[in-house]
UniProtKB/TrEMBL annotation, chain A:
The lineage of its organism: Bacteria, Pseudomonadati, Bacteroidota, Sphingobacteriia, Sphingobacteriales. This is PadR family transcriptional regulator, regulatory protein PadR. It comes from the Bacteria. Pfam families: PadR. Gene3D superfamilies: Winged helix-like DNA-binding domain superfamily/Winged helix DNA-binding domain (1.10.10.10). Residues 10-79 form the Transcription regulator PadR N-terminal domain. InterPro entries: Metal_resp_DNA-bind_regulator, Tscrpt_reg_PadR_N, WH-like_DNA-bd_sf, WH_DNA-bd_sf.
From TrEMBL, chain B:
It is a single-pass membrane protein. Residues 391-518 form the PspC-related ToastRack domain. InterPro entries: Phageshock_PspC_N, PspC, PspC-rel_TM, PspC-rel_ToastRack. Residues 109-165 form the Phage shock protein PspC N-terminal domain. Its main location: membrane. This is Phage shock protein C (PspC) family protein. Residues 204-336 form the PspC-related transmembrane region domain. GO terms for cellular component: plasma membrane. Pfam families: LiaI-LiaF-TM_PspC, PspC, Toast-rack_PspC-Cterm. The chain crosses the membrane at residues 137-166, 228-257, 277-297, 309-329. Keywords: Cell membrane, Membrane, Transmembrane, Transmembrane helix. It is found in: Cell membrane.
Length: 107, 550
């Protein structure tokens, strides 16, 4: 579940535009989703292998060349589906939570 | 002063201290080993190396230094995360096999325990993979085997020892019978990726799809049937539990247990500890039932019936109760260790004939003039209930021959048990029994009494009635329960049941060869020759004396 959400978030972050791996990490850390960086790389590779992402090497002013990730049309399509599913999920959870709250106050 | 080493990460050169290099090297070996099974490992490790190089670079630029130190390496590793953190960050989620197409199999499956789908050791799920059955059915069979016969537990332990655990991805694929080739490894990855989507759509749908694709109505029917049976089983277990609790509570008089009213299992226990012992025994008996119900619910419906903490609390409660019960049981058993016998002899007034009768303490006799009838009955009943248990405190007696010149007597043998011989003897001495002689009639109480505060410690009483040869005894039929080694029935048969009733009393006589029935068996046939009767009479001395008597 958590892993799925993590991939969903990565896709969302990348869909905003071309981005560098360590910036993705920064975003994820801000969202308190990622604990260590090592977890990110296998996920990125897998998403790339599934054709949802692509990347390009770019020269860096300080240090080695960097991989910049970009979302593919296939990735956008999956992201769209995930958005719908997520909304459904949020609706489902919220609806159940409301029921819980009213039953809590009712007691 | 430290030696430095020059390393090259992705085309960038770093100076690094020797010890820091060792740490970095072992970290990278760990990382490579972790991703070593996958086809993407090269790329992933490359990304990680790249990022490390970048972080080193940042540190050199910011710190205005030239050498990477131990501190830098440790910081970078902490930021990147240990290999063990990768595992927890990316758990190998157990996925529902039903939602995937049948994987290409190598035909050869390995019997291994499945760590992704386990209740205890993953034995059942491993067996399920091996035979291609859903693991819950195997669990159910094992639980039933355990409940009816107890072989399930042993079987499980043996299988647990024998079956290796499927640690690596290759092992898990071999367990499912998938060929360990590149294509399947890739598929395995894709399944994890797919898991992301199926997780949202829900496992229930996946299961339904799997069942539909099997296109088997009978499978569904079987699942429903098994669930119904499971529910019935649980209901049965709960019923058994309720009956158990009620019977314990009812038969031991759990509520407001009156010290005066203690019955057998309770009168072994000291009055003060009766309630704690009862409660702990109840807990010891009930918790396994609850655990079994929870286990069946978990297997059948794939959802835990109780929280982890509840389980721990129940386990702890059971252990405490079992410990208490064991300690108390050991103490009580210890109190039965020594047996002591106290013997007492009482002479009898000599008479040619004794009438033996019984004073039945289990019967309440009322005086005619008693005014307060009800309270009197209640008082007597309480005393009787406290002190007399028909089978536990019954007096037993034997009739023993002594020489005709010796005087008749009664020997009492009081017996009891205790932790030491002294305690046992003291307890035996407290046995209270009444016997009285009124002229030629001997009246025996049917039972002995033990004091109200006295515990049941296997108290017994044997009476020996020492009767000189030639003495006649008229024994009341009521005493047949007390005198077990006398063939009373045979003697009664000799009376012939002329009016259809069993005689109340039988006549016996003490001879040199022991106690004999005083009445001859009825003549076999009236028409028989007198000679035949004579031979019968000549055989036995008793018959002669009996014949001359009336």
């Amino acid at each position: 579940m958590r892993k799925g959400i993590l991939e969903y978030c990565i896709l969302s972050i990348i869909s905003r535009g071309e981005i560098y791996a360590s910036d993705i990490i920064g975003e994820l850390k801000k969202a308190r989703l990622l604990v260590v960086e090592g977890t990110l790389y296998p996920l990125l590779t897998r998403l790339k292998n599934n054709g949802l992402l692509s990347y390009a090497w770019k020269e860096s002013t300080s240090g080695p060349p960097r991989k910049y990730y970009q979302i593919t049309p296939a990735g956008l399509e999956v992201l769209g589906k995930l958005d719908t599913t997520w909304e459904e999920l949020v609706f489902a959870v919220q609806t159940s939570m409301e029921g819980r709250k009213t039953s809590d106050t009712g007691q | 002063m430290n030696r430095t080493i020059i390393i090259n990460i992705n085309g960038i050169v770093f100076h690094i201290e020797e010890d820091a290099y060792e740490v970095l090297r072992s970290y990278m070996i760990d990382v490579k080993k972790h991703f070593g099974h996958t086809i993407d490992s090269h790329e992933i490790v490359g990304d990680i190396e790249n990022r490390i190089a970048e972080m080193f670079n940042e540190r050199i630029v910011q710190g205005k230094k030239e050498v990477i130190t131990m501190e830098d390496v440790n910081d970078v590793i902490a930021q990147m995360g240990r290999v063990s953190d990768f595992e927890t960050g990316e758990p190998q989620e157990a996925y529902d096999e039903a939602s995937y197409d049948i994987p290409p199999t190598s035909g050869q499956r390995k019997l291994m325990r499945d760590p992704d789908d386990k209740v205890f050791g993953g034995v059942c799920s491993g067996l399920g993979h091996y035979f291609g059955i859903e693991s819950r059915w195997i669990r159910l069979i094992l639980v039933l085997l355990f409940v009816f016969g107890g072989t399930g537990l042993l079987l499980y332990i043996i299988l647990w020892i024998v079956m290796p655990i499927a640690r690596t991805r290759a092992d898990r694929m071999a367990m499912r019978g998938e060929a360990p080739n590149l294509q399947n490894f890739k598929r395995s990855f894709q399944e994890e990726m797919e898991g992301l989507r199926t997780n949202f759509t829900g496992a229930e749908e996946g299961l339904r799809r799997g069942l539909d694709s099997a296109g088997n109505f009978f499978v569904k029917a079987f699942v429903v049937l098994a669930k119904v049976i499971g529910v019935l089983f649980i209901v049965g277990l709960c019923g058994g539990l309720v009956v158990l609790v009620i019977s314990i509570v009812a038969s031991f008089g759990f509520f407001g247990a009156d010290a005066d009213m203690a019955m057998f299992p309770l009168n072994v226990i000291e009055p003060d500890s009766r309630n704690p012992v009862l409660i702990s025994a109840l807990v010891v008996a009930v918790i396994p039932f609850v655990a079994l119900v929870a286990l069946i619910i978990r297997i059948l419906f794939n959802r835990p019936a109780m929280g982890q903490y509840t389980g721990f609390i129940l386990l702890a409660a059971w252990l405490v109760a079992a410990g208490f019960t064991t300690v108390y049981a050991t103490r009580t058993i210890n109190d039965f260790r020594e047996e002591s016998t106290v013997v007492e002899e009482q002479p009898l007034e000599k008479q040619p004939v004794y009438y033996l009768s019984r004073n039945d303490l289990t019967v309440i006799r009322l005086q005619n003039d008693s005014l307060d009838r009800a309270s009197r009955i209640r008082h007597r009943a309480t005393i009787r209930n406290r002190n007399i248990l028909e089978w536990q405190s019954r007096m037993r007696m034997r009739i023993v021959k002594v020489d005709s010149l010796q005087s008749p007597s009664v020997t009492y043998e009081y017996m009891a048990r205790g932790a030491t011989y002294e305690l046992a003897a003291e307890r035996a001495g407290k046995i209270d029994y009444h016997f009285q002689q009124q002229g030629d009639s001997l009246i025996f109480d049917s039972h002995f009494n033990i004091a109200a505060q006295e515990l049941m410690r296997d108290q017994q009483l044997y009476l020996k009635l020492n009767i000189p040869v030639g003495t006649k005894l008229i024994i009341d039929r009521e005493l047949r329960r007390q005198i077990s080694d006398l063939p009373l029935n045979q003697c009664e048969a000799n009376y012939g049941y002329t009016d259809g009733n069993i005689p109340d009393k039988t006549e016996w006589i003490m001879t040199e060869s022991g106690l004999k029935c005083g009445i001859a068996p009825p003549a076999p046939a009236v028409e028989e020759s007198p000679g035949a009767v004579d031979t019968v009479r000549a055989d036995s001395v008793i018959v002669d004396t009996a014949a001359t008597n009336p």
